[in-house]
Amino acid sequence: MSRLTRRSFTQWSLSTLAASSIVSKVAGADEASKESADSVSEVYDFARPALGRVQPVPADNIKASPLSVGFETLDREHFDPKKTYPHLAKLGVKWARCQTGWCRCETTPGQYTFAWLDEVVDSLLAIGVQPWFNLGYGNQLYAPKADKHAVGWAPVFDEQYKKAWLNFTRAIAEHFADRVKCWEIWNEPNISGFWKPEKPNATDYVDLVKITAPEIRKRVSDAVIIGGAYAGMPTKYFEQCMAEGMGDYVDRVSYHPYRPVPESGYASTLAEWRKTLAKHNDKLRFWQGENGCPSKGGKGSAGALSKLNWNETRQAKWLTRRILTDLRLEVELTSYFHLVDLVGYRGITNFKGLLRGTDYSPKPSFFAYQCLAALFDSQPQHKSAMAPKLSGELPKSIETAGFVRNGHGICAYWVPANLQKRWTPTKVNVSLPATAGIKQPVMVDPLSSRVYSLTTEKGTDGQLALADLPLLDYPLLITDQAVALGS
Predict the structure, then answer these.
(1) DSSP assignments along 228-264, one per residue
(2) Is the pTM of this model over 0.70?
(3) What average pLDDT score do residues 158-186 get?
(4) Interior angle at CA 280, CA 195 and CA 220, nearest 5
């Protein structure tokens, strides 16, 4: 069975917005609403001049990265991929999750049309982004009770349907063998919306994995097979899948941890899941395969978390917390859902995109992710000893993280606050380890990519002491000027 270590994985894989620009995007002349006013008021004013900005790095200039973006639902044609490529090329992520759309590839029994998917794959590769496939969903040709796209209609309950699925799997694997190496089997099989017509059952899902994975491996010799793609983090269902032998057929396990507070219960659940891997197959690694946050909630907004009160600034904050949390917990790949708003999703719009679905213009979340992509490619390594220590009047819960890039620490801290409520910024004292290798300390605000100079004092044991820094409801990064500005 083909296996990738974390090191070989990253080796194999293939402007910025100022604070004033965030305000103009959120509160333009045509957006004079309460939501827009809330967004403006939630942009922190650092009240000091910036040294410059973290410069974006295009994908084709990045050798490898653990960062991915959602490129799903093209099987249902919810967005125009051609309008996204110029933006995606500049974003700086190296991976894109693509759904293969059996219903769109086989509209006549036994005849496969991959032209639309060829265009997607080749366009992504041309800009330095590696597509990874979600092989899933059904086909009305063989499931007559399904709708046009047969979303969730699993091919395991009927022999003719199963045979057609395996034929499709063989055809698509052969067609893309030299271009796509990572294959995920099905999407969210643990919920009834994506597993029909029977009730979700771990045994049935693992049966699908057992018949599908070998067909891919026969045609893609160095394939990386991803199992799970779970909705949320269903611990019991995951344990059942592993007990049924899923770990013998896959190389990675993926999950979709949608939650309004991205850190809430996440670390403890992931620790439990790692114990399950250790019990069944300790060579497997986790991928956070789909997770996003709307920029607009309430009426007219579709998808996970859509009933809550969101705006574009809150979305950007949420994204930085999701990505930094996954990196801190050493999740091998983390994917933000989605690149662009999905217009017509369940009859309305899913507003989780980094780009607006109306005109494909970037939201603040796009620039926040672009900043993180420039700093957190495959080079930074997580080092818990590099995490900053905070003092002062602190809230009950604080998140910190430490990384090392080219010998310099990148130290992050934030409050895992409820983004549905206003957070009042406070001041905090921060100390960094003497081993951080930070000679010219700066602070990076990922929402604006602005870089601010800092003044330090020597603390105890050679630590660097920084006084009266802002404490916000999203991560601020302290690092060396050479990391942030490349100087």
Answers:
(1) EEEEB--HHHHHHHHHTTGGGT-SEEEEE---SSTTT
(2) yes
(3) 98
(4) 65
